[in-house]
Amino acid sequence: MRILITGATGFLGKALARGLVQAGMDVQALNHPNGDRVDLTNMDAVRVAMAGREFDVLVHLAGYAFVQRSNPTEFYRVNVLGTENLFEAMLEFGQGQGGMLCTSTAGVYGQQEAPLLAESLVPHPLNHYSISKYGMEQLLRKYSSDRQVTVVRPFNIIGRGQSPLFLVPKLVGHFARRSPSIDIGNLEPVRDYVAVEDFVDVMVALASRPLRNDTINIGTGMGHSVRDVIDCLASLSGYLPELRQVHQHVRKDDISRLVADPSHLRSSVGFSGDFTPLDQVLARLLEEHSGQE
Fold it and tell me: Which amino acids are annotated catalytic?
């Protein structure tokens, strides 16, 4: 199987590229012939990067990621227009006959009453990042007769190499350094935390079989609050810093609960692996971070 992967230099991309290679696949990273990163919003640049490539499946991870104070315009330019440019170039060159495996986000669900979020729910994205990703999903529907497109909605993926701009690596860093205090936002939001290694296992399983037009959650079905994460880190480290709730860290559009219903992943896709418990992931991250200090 020949795989072309976008976003191969990012947190998820690096891990997935390794996993695909270990599974025996021929993996190419999408970049400019001179080695530069490709501007997906520039169709000419995308054509130059795609021309002459031979691959069966396009695994699309590249996108403008959500962090506080991100530029809203870039979400739509990169996540929607950039994805369309990729698909149009793939069709133009007759590539990727096996289809596209594309990452969206669990954030598209928004605020829901259901405790576990199934793919059949009507999405209600609440911020520019999630709205752009849902726009990307809708855009890809128009290509469903040209190529098979499987969209995955990962929940909160955590693991080694993730930017400290995100909550869990930020907290792990504070505990590893034994910071006297941590500035924190809301402690109550509940999330479904997925080890990056488990995300890779699911993606490799999907890439290894014929793709189909589908939408699939990648989540464990277990929810943990921010307070739970802090309590677990305190138990693992034997240390509890002062928690200072800071207004600017509280998001006005924060979702109270985002926990996957993994039934479709388990039954229709046939993924039977065990997800890594949160305490094991945090213990590993804490040990790795402490070793770097």
Answer: 129
